[in-house]
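Chapter review: from sequence to fold.
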Amino acid sequence: MSLMFEPLRKFATFSGRARRREYWLWQLFIWIISAVLFAWLFAALPDKVVGTDEFFAMSGNLMEGPTRLPMIVIALVSLALFLPSLAVSVRRLHDSDKSGWWLLLNLLAIGALVLLIFFLIDGTRGPNSYGPDPKGRPGPAS
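The token string follows.
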């Protein structure tokens, strides 16, 4: 469970490596926070708006009335968690001996799928150019 909050401890550390478990527990934490915040936002919407076309008509007015506070909190939490998310993603790529610049693949349509595969595969066994193996495994026999 402590790996879930490791990206907060390594807030802006882009060097080193991150295990799969650290990365995916962080993603789980982000999903839980997002679900709670958006549940709060939808609970704050007026009853006549939820599930109707009026929601889209009033979408420009979401920063007024009871939805103002949830929207501000969502924006602040998103800003606060952006840098740790970016850092853990770069460290996860480092674990498979890839540069953090690979994250720019997200700009392409197929890039997110490629990155998902990179995040799912096991890291390089033993030390690589980004540091020692976070699992403490020895390198391949020469």
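Two observations follow directly from the output. The chain has a mean pLDDT of 85. The helical segments are 6-9, 20-44, 54-57, 68-95, 111-120.
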